[in-house]
Amino acid sequence: MQSKHPNSSDPKNENIVENKELDIWEALIPVVILMGLLAYNIFFADGIWLGDYSNQFILLMGAGIAAVVGFFNKSSLQTMISEVWENLKSVFIPIMILFLVGALAGTWLVSGIIPAMVYYGLQVLNPVIFLPTCVIIAAIISIATGSSWTTSATVGIALIGIGEALGIPLGMVAGAVISGAYFGDKMSPLSDTTNLAPAMAGTDLFTHIKYMAITTVPTIVLTLIIFSIISLNIETTGSTDVSGLLATIDTTFNITPYLFIVPLVVVILIVLKTKPLIALGTGVVVAAIFAFIFQPEILGKLSSSSFSSITNAIFTDVQINTDNERLNDLFSSTGMKGMLGTIYLCICAMVFGGVMDGIGALARITKSLLKMADTVFGLFASTVFSCLGLNAIASDQYLALVIPGKMFAKAYKDKGLAPENLSRTLEDSGTVTSVLIPWNTCGLYQSSVLGVGVGEYYLYAFFNWISPFTTLLFAALNIKIKLLATATKD
Question: Measured between alpha carbons, how far is 68 from 292 in angstroms, rounded to an integer?
């Protein structure tokens, strides 16, 4: 089972801390202050209110405020530290993957893999259908690998490069890639969240996938229609500029189809259920070897020694200059160093989420939402808002599935609803929206790998934000809401 968000611990065993001393208003104090500070920093201070790492510092401030609230409500420091430590352990593997993705971007650039993807992609992909094609390609790779993270780190990077060369806004391209990647990930039996959601709800994997298709297929169809309309109405540099771009790439790099062996090896390893660290690490090593074989001139120009050029591409940065200014931005990478800001933000988000869990705030907020679920629609709506809120507060999509899954399972049963209603709602609102939160681990990862900020792509990640509305619409209109009695007969 491959993961879009690999976790070193089993999320099904996640402990949910409850605190009877804490009321809902106290639980919301850290959230309100955090959101206010983040909003001020993003919208009024241009993100540099407290320096380059202002959002990281704000998250730590939020953790401190949550700790104070906890102390006043008899939460022990040991419990808070324990939950923070569990959170930090859970992102150790994702942090290692982020480092490897940085190294991957650097080595795939100097070896000519990314330029080759752009070179051939420009000849194959028509600007008129480029965006819906991105959705389809990303969906296919994600279904095969069960991982939106792998999809973005491979074909996602290439599609961003092709879109940039065609003059298509990168937010649109990233939105299309993410839409396809999360559709495929959501429907793949290899995905961790697709296995986790039914485990939390009490149903089986393939019943969950079949039932989830009822809301997911219409959403992806609508997404493809929207992207098709956009593609037909946006202006691109189109084919008139492609010949010049192709000539520049061909002159600068040694372009050959053999370079595609490297991404093919990575995808095969993922499909064969190889650990993500091994698969991506293999991609870095093989790409470095290919750089020595196919791009010796590039390596010679970058540094006094070819080995030094490779190490710079992996750990620091690399810039390959061409005679085309538009390609110069594309042919640059910051390696592992470029991932540090994202990693710091991820760590700080886990600290905040851990303290909030440790003082019982996450459980209190979810329970308060559960009290609003008097009707069937109210139960679905409470689940959706609980998943959305936990993605923002806990900064981790696992918690956005585990906590509502555990809290709401009995409520669905009491309403006579089959467990797949809950598992589908968890995925429709928890899995796919994690990437829309800038400080969530998924939002951090995708924006870093694709080089496009969440603020640039979130509007165009149509599949991701339409999905919760679809599940609420089906619940409101009572469309395909499976009852427990029906589930038993089946």
Answer: 56
Q: pLDDT (tens digit, 9 = 90+) per residue, 337-353?
A: 888 877 887 788 788 88
Contact 185, 220 (CB under 8 A): no
Single-letter code of the amino acid located at 210: K
- What single string gives the DSSP state of each residue in 239-274? HHHHHHHHHHHHHHS---GGGGHHHHHHHHHHHTT-
Q: Tell me the domain boundaries of the chain.
A: 93-339
**What's the CA gap between 222 and 141, in Å, rounded?**
20
Instruction: Please state whether 408 falls in left (phi above 0), alpha (psi between -120 and 50) or beta.
Output: alpha
Please say whether the beta carbons of 425 and 470 come within 8 A.
no
Taking the C-alpha atoms of residue 108 and residue 102, their distance in angstroms, rounded to an integer, is 10
Our CA angle for 364, 369, 372, nearest 5°, is 135
Six-digit token string for 124: 């194959």
Task: Report the pLDDT value the prediction gives residue 218, as an integer from 0 to 100.
Answer: 96
The answer, yes or no, to whether residue 391 has pLDDT greater than 70, is yes
Q: What is the Cα–Cα distance from 102 to 334, expressed in whole angstroms?
A: 7
Residue 332's Cβ-count burial label (10 Å; 0-12, 13-18, 19+) is middle
- What confidence tier does 10 reach under pLDDT thresholds 50, 70, 90? low
Query: Which residue's structure tokens are 């037909």?
Result: 232
Asked if residue 437 lies in contact with residue 52, where contact means CB atoms within 8 angstroms, the answer is no
| ∠ Cα 296 297 302 (to 5°) | 100
